[in-house]
Amino acid sequence: MGLLDKVKTQAANASAMAKDAAQKGQAKFDAMQAKRAADVLLRNLGAVVYGQRTGRAGATAEADAERIVVSLKDHEAEHGPIDLGAEPPSD
Length: 91
Hints:
Layout (H helix, E strand, L loop, with lengths): L2 H51 L7 H19 L12
């Protein structure tokens, strides 16, 4: 194998490794974005429920809660189950 062939092989290997790293990075980024979207939906649902439980719910609270639950179900269908474990409050 000549020097040029070795260089071509190394370049192809480096290119494949770079593509793999880019795909893994994109997958991680997509997962983080999906988690953020779920967190926003869960926060909004929590705000609606809190409003209902404390007598401060708006007139559309029940419809809002149903809309958010549907959005969460759609999100889970696309991205998989949402981790519902409670996080400790931050101080």
